[in-house]
Specification:
This protein is of the alpha+beta class. The protein has one domain: START domain (Alpha-D-Glucose-1,6-Bisphosphate, Chain A, domain 4, 2-Layer Sandwich). Helix content is about 25%, strand content about 40%. The protein is built from two helices and seven strands; from the N terminus they run E-H-E-E-E-E-E-E-H. A seven-stranded antiparallel β-sheet has the order 1-7-6-5-4-3-2. The longest helix has 28 residues. The chain starts with about 25 loop residues before the first strand and ends with a helix.
Length: about 160
């Protein structure tokens, strides 16, 4: 370890995240109804790059209206795994997607969150909040835009499949 870093208290590397003062917030409005976006939100993982392996784990029906599952992402470019907790609520028509990490004392911490909700009949708003980052906010913006593109492609592929039937 470099001498300058020898006396740093390790507790400060896992400070509690402050959701009231997020690092960044993005918003996008999709021109689709909620059902279309919800289906695409699940299917979009089929169109990830070849070096990314996605699997679903721990699927639970929380109540009559809410389903929760974890998406495990394994990237061939590194050793790190990431987990996304997704809750689809059909009662209030929301999708909550949280990128989670193991925090201090092995507790689950939310690093970023997207909440999708309808705006009228034919629009869905995605509100994205970046809570924790390692100085890569511009990369997160690019990843947000890539996610939007992937969702559009998923919707278009689904429409194409319906026309083919």
């Amino acid at each position: 370890m470099h001498r300058e870093y020898e006396n740093i208290d390790a507790r400060y590397f896992n400070l509690p995240l402050d959701e009231k003062s997020p690092a960044a917030q993005f918003r996008y409005v999709y021109p689709f109804n909620f059902t279309t976006v919800a289906q695409a939100w699940i299917l979009k993982f089929n169109y990830e790059p070849r070096f990314v392996l996605t699997s679903f784990a721990n699927v639970q029906q929380l109540d009559e209206d809410r389903v929760q599952f974890y998406r495990r992402v394994d990237c061939a470019a590194g050793d790190d795994l990431s987990y996304e907790k997704i809750i689809i609520n059909r009662a209030d028509k929301t999708i909550t997607s949280e990128l989670i990490a193991e925090g201090f004392n092995k507790k689950e911490q939310v690093c970023e969150r997207s909440i999708l909700h309808p705006e009228g009949e034919d629009k869905v708003v995605q509100d994205y909040t970046l809570i924790a980052h390692q100085g890569v906010k511009t990369v997160k913006l690019e990843l947000f835009k890539t996610g939007i593109e992937r969702l559009y492609k998923t919707v278009k592929f689904a429409q194409f499949e319906q026309q083919s039937e």
